[in-house]
Design goal:
The structure holds 2 protein chains of 2 kinds. Chain A is α+β, with helices and mostly antiparallel strands. Chain A contains 10 helices and 9 strands. In chain A, strands 1-3-4-5-6-7-8-9 form an 8-stranded antiparallel β-barrel. The radius of gyration of chain A is 28 Å and the shape is elongated. Chain B contains 4 helices and no strands. Chain B has a domain at 24-53. By secondary structure, chain B is mainly alpha-helical. Chain B starts with a helix and ends with a helix. The chains are: A alpha+beta, B mainly alpha.
């Protein structure tokens, strides 16, 4: 919709421009347009590329997600989980993007860069559609931006590939040495390189080194209590509820993340929240990756008071805004966690959790290397 | 060697001739529209973008 409005404005301004300045040296202006779209594209590709070269673009799979049935994820989440499980593939995608950006920075290699970008982002566009991602306009935008450079050499490409005729490369270029913009050009090029290679590259690298992520909360979780726990005893208002596929109120298992999130698998279907934040927010309260587009578990953010061992849970899904708990945490032994307190409705609750000591294949593989695990079909 | 020099000189400096020869009327109009359109879509117009930087 926005683009239609822009097109309307562009038509109006173009007519005005034509009446004011009927004769234009179009080769020169086309040259300027190509410079503009090359650098705009390169800046986008460098930011996107460095986030993949240092694989921050998708996070590691959380313990809660590893304890969620595959069918509970929406399609888009499946794509992100596949990328999380194979960071080397993400690095490869990043290298392609950075390489294409470098090719775009030079007039003579820009067309080659575009030849990489159009199929690459065309593929991203199809993946966006197939996995029902909401971002297909981003890939459309990138392909659209590459058109001024692509169209410029398209005729020559056709002549060379289709007609197999001898083809001269485009020779027209601005004589910068005679231009008063000579100095501006040098300064511009250097600042572009500093910002998009050194600043963006270094920031991505340092975030990767410090094992930061752009998706999960940064607040630390509970010391010594991380992983999956079975619910051994569940007592609601004094009644012990036995595990049963027909009992809705009982918890099935609990996962404590390394950060301040606790997720509970319950026996009822969950109203899934759609993702709200497309950009990577810095505040924990806006980071909603872990509980959006996925069912099976309820996700709570918690606060723990060391003094009286009180764990306060708040459900972050907007459909469960009333879901909260205030529980006293104690550890009868190192493998067990006892939670006692009340839920948001004032019902009393006592839950005994036992460490499932679950091993995850992804982590086991990392310890010995994938090749040593071996494959048997 | 000297012939090559003359060739590039023609392409580089006589742009008005090349312009008129290469650009039919519809392309000239389309170009002006595209030029403005690409600049409009490339410059962020949402104030939130600038605060996020």
């Amino acid at each position: 919709m926005d683009w239609t409005i822009y097109l309307g404005i562009a038509v109006a301004l173009a007519l005005l421009w034509r009446s004011r300045q009927p004769h234009l040296e179009l080769n020169k202006w086309y040259y300027y347009l190509r410079i503009f779209s090359r650098y705009k594209l390169a800046s986008i590709l460098l930011v996107a590329g460095f986030l993949k070269v240092f694989p921050l673009y998708v996070p590691e799979i959380s313990l809660s997600h590893l304890n969620t049935g595959y069918g509970y994820f929406q399609h888009w989440k499946h794509l992100l989980l596949s990328l999380s499980a194979a960071p080397a593939y993400l690095v490869f995608l990043g290298i392609v993007e950075v390489a294409a950006a470098i090719l775009l920075l030079f007039r003579r290699t820009a067309f080659l860069g575009v030849i990489f970008i159009i199929p690459f982002y065309g593929n991203v566009f199809l993946a966006d559609l197939a996995y029902e991602g909401g971002d297909f306009l981003v890939s459309t935008y990138i392909v659209l931006l590459s058109l001024p450079v692509f169209v410029y050499d398209l005729g020559r490409l056709g002549r060379l590939i289709y007609h197999k005729a001898f083809t001269q490369p485009a020779a027209w270029h601005l004589e910068w040495n005679h231009s008063r913009w000579k100095k501006v050009r040098v300064v511009g090029k250097i600042s572009f390189a500093v910002v998009f290679f050194f600043v963006v590259g270094f920031k991505s690298y340092s975030a990767f080194r410090q094992q930061q992520n752009l998706f999960y909360p940064q607040h630390k979780g509970l010391e010594g209590i991380v992983g999956k726990y079975w619910v051994k005893d569940f007592v609601l208002n004094g009644d012990t509820i036995a595990p049963s596929p027909f009992e809705n109120g009982r918890w099935k298992d609990v996962v404590f993340e390394r950060w301040n999130t606790l997720s509970i698998r319950v026996n009822e279907s969950i109203v899934v929240e759609e993702p709200a934040s497309r950009l990577w927010p810095r505040q924990d309260s806006l980071r909603n990756y872990e509980y959006t587009q996925v069912g099976d578990r309820l996700y709570y953010t918690f606060q723990f008071s060391e003094q009286d061992s009180i764990l306060t849970l708040a459900n972050r899904n907007k459909h469960y805004i009333a879901g909260s708990y205030r529980l006293q945490l104690s550890q009868p032994d190192s493998n067990a966690v006892l939670l006692r307190g009340t839920n948001g409705r004032g019902d009393s609750l006592q839950v005994l959790l036992v460490d499932a000591k679950k091993k995850y294949l992804l982590e086991e593989v990392k310890k010995v290397g994938r090749r040593k695990v071996g494959y048997k079909l | 060697m000297s012939k090559k020099k003359i060739d590039t000189a023609v392409i580089n400096h006589d742009t008005s001739y090349v312009d008129r020869k290469q650009w039919p009327q519809w392309q000239r109009i389309l170009f002006r529209i595209s030029f403005i359109f690409f600049i409009l879509i490339a410059i962020p117009n949402n104030p939130h973008w600038y605060t996020h930087v």
